[in-house]
Amino acid sequence: ETGVTQTPRHLVMGMTNKKSLKCEQHLGHNAMYWYKQSAKKPLELMFVYNFKEQTENNSVPSRFSPECPNSSHLFLHLHTLQPEDSALYLCASSQGIFYEQYFGPGTRLTVT
Amino acid sequence: KNEVEQSPQNLTAQEGEFITINCSYSVGISALHWLQQHPGGGIVSLFMLSSGKKKHGRLIATINIQEKHSSLHITASHPRDSAVYICAGHTGNQFYFGTGTSLTVIP
After folding, report:
1. What is the DSSP pairing of strand B43-49 with strand B31-37?
2. What tens digit of pLDDT does each residue of B72-81 get?
3. Nearest CA to CA, how far is B4 from chain A (Å)?
4. How do strand A107-111 and strand A10-13 relate by DSSP bridges?
């Protein structure tokens, strides 16, 4: 068990839908991350939260909106996505920022 | 050109072989991570190192800061080692990922 859970595991949504991805960590960590992994491309770091404060936003389009209500939960709100946003979205947590990270199983997102 | 380059991109080995995966980076980094990703997507952090060498079971990771190079070695490889191995360097709030090395170990 990784200690980091993500729901849903699979999501298919139309371009006009609004959906949210959820991540929860049971490790007592202070930092949480969202990553995007597209086919044939390197992992892309999207957002970083440290003690519930966003410390990094790597030029991510505004159709992706993160939310970190507490150190254990991280959400990624999705709206008006494009087909090229189809990818595996991974959540991770670590004790401190950029310490060894523990990854969730990911959400496989397909935008139709 | 990616800031982090891995080689080889694909690797097939016979069970029991000694395996080396290389990672070179062109930016200054605070630490380097080796990650393992199994089919289905799950990622496990294998090592985080900023100097020298670390060992965990059959896995060994080394880093040469001056040469901006790291290697991941697997001794006595096993089919369960089949996965994608990803090298990543970080500095400040930036994270640079390699494209991964796909390893297949044949029984």
Report:
1. antiparallel
2. 999 999 999 9
3. 10
4. parallel
- The encoded tokens of residue A62 equal 């505004």
CA distances from B12 to A47, A66, B23, B82, B105 (A): 35, 39, 18, 9, 6
Q: What are phi and psi of B79, to 5 degrees?
A: -55, -30
Tell the residue number behind the tokens 């090229």, with chain if given: A84
- Hey, is A72 helix, strand or coil? coil
User: How does pLDDT run across B22-58, given as a tens digit for each residue?
Assistant: 999 998 998 999 999 988 778 999 999 999 999 999 9
- Asked if B88 has any chain A CB less than 8 Å from its own CB, the reply is yes
Give me B65's structure tokens: 């800061």
H-helix or E-strand containing A53? Answer: strand A53-57
Q: In b/e form, how buried is each residue of B15-31, taking b as 16+ CB within 10 angstroms?
A: eeeebebebbbeeebeb
Strand, coil or helix: A67: strand
A2 pLDDT above the threshold of 70: no
Cα distance between residue B18 and residue B6, in whole Å: 18
Name the burial class of residue A106, with classes exposed (0-12), middle (13-18) and buried (19+) by CB atoms within 10 angstroms of its CB: buried
Phi/psi of residue B81, nearest 5 degrees: -80, -10
Substitution target in B30, B43, B47, B48 with the highest count of A β-carbons within 10 Å is B43
